[in-house]
Design a protein that fits this description.
Structural class: alpha/beta
Distance between the termini: 34 Å
Radius of gyration: 23 Å
Number of domains: 2
Order of helices and strands: EEEHEEHEHHHEHEHEEHEHEEHEHH
Bound molecules: adenosine-5'-diphosphate
Strand order of the largest sheet: 6-7-8-3-9-10
Length: 313
């Protein structure tokens, strides 16, 4: 049975904003699945529907076979969520927060102590957990929130932009912690992010979401492979369409070439990088920069949506 099954899921907010426009995907047990897209793409709304805080206006979603709209309580029992906004009580110690959450979820006290002990170790909280949360840094609090979400031993964990607002070093530490979680258990994780590196590093598969629709869904490697091994990038100082036409006529640029502003990105596929560079030279195109590089997920996203992920975020 799939851990998550989403069919034609949609959400139109009162006032008419179509935040999610009929998306479909399935997530296998134990898989780490990423929803990648810029702010406003519909990621949080999707997580909200899967975690029963937002009611879908169309379609269905099942968690471990449980329909989130028909049986929201049962759906919540198999899943946990870490939202962007903090939910822990700052006046209490980390441990107290974990204990209260365990009681809320009716975890047997003896089991709770063991579970909490294990989570404190796994999330590197040993030195913090008996201090009030008010003194935690952003990254420390995020780790406590993940521990809190795991107290009920969910089969599914939802992480909504888990590293947003953290400085880069803390972000990498937290990514290690999340990567460690999957090694520990066969829990399914769905995370949302607008960081490409994060998606690439953590996820088995990624759905790229744009304006409420999934525009690509595959493994990071397969998404990248669609662009071949090498990309030719030119910053054109003259007319971009003219340069593109010349490159096409010369057989350098294929149909998947795309332009953003004055930058032309040309997936080379079977064509060699040095041949392509020689062709640019020969054509005498007016450029301010020309080079070849490996494709990135940013290219995948850009080709599909016409907007650069980091800029849109
Ligand atoms: P993301 O998480 O990818 O940034 P969201 O799911 O938060 O995207 O938002 C998707 C779209 O829905 C945006 O246009 C946003 O403004 C809109 N939206 C989100 N929440 C609400 C709401 N409660 N009421 C109306 N519009 C909303």
């Amino acid at each position: 049975m799939n851990a998550i099954e989403v069919t034609k899921l949609g959400k139109t907010y009162p006032g008419g904003v179509q935040a999610v426009r009929g998306i479909d995907f399935e997530v296998a047990p134990g898989e780490v699945f990423g929803l990648l897209g810029p702010n406003g793409a519909g990621k949080s709304t999707t997580v909200g529907m899967l975690t029963t805080t937002i009611r879908p206006t169309s379609g269905t979603a099942r968690l471990a076979g449980v329909d989130v709209t028909k049986h929201p309580l049962a759906a919540r029992r198999v899943s946990s969520v870490v939202f962007q906004d903090s939910v822990v009580d700052r006046a209490l110690t980390g441990r107290r927060n974990l204990e209260i959450h365990a009681r809320l979820w009716s975890v047997e006290p003896r089991d709770a102590a063991d579970t909490i002990g294990g989570l404190v170790d796994a999330l590197g909280l040993a030195e913090l957990v008996d201090r009030p949360v008010a003194g935690y840094s952003g990254g420390e609090r995020r780790r406590l929130e993940i521990a809190r979400a795991l107290v009920s031993q969910p089969r599914l964990l939802f992480l909504d932009e888990p590293t947003v607002g953290l400085d880069p070093r803390i972000r990498y530490e937290l990514l290690d912690v999340i990567a460690g979680l999957r090694a520990r258990s066969d829990m399914t994780i769905l995370l949302t992010t607008h960081y490409l590196d994060e998606a690439e590093r953590l996820c088995d598969r990624i759905a790229i979401i744009h304006a409420g629709k999934i525009v690509a869904l595959d493994t990071p490697a397969a998404l990248l492979a669609a662009l071949g091994h090498e990309i030719l990038e030119l910053r054109v100082s003259g007319d971009v369409p003219t340069a593109l036409k010349a490159l096409r006529a010369r057989g350098v640029a294929g149909d998947d070439t795309f332009a953003v502003g004055s930058t032309l990105t040309v997936p080379l596929h079977d064509r060699g990088g040095s041949d392509a560079l020689a062709a640019v030279e020969e054509l005498g195109l007016a450029t301010t920069a020309v080079g070849t590089r490996k494709p990135t997920l940013d290219d995948v996203y850009l080709r599909l949506t016409g907007g650069r992920l980091a800029e849109a975020a």
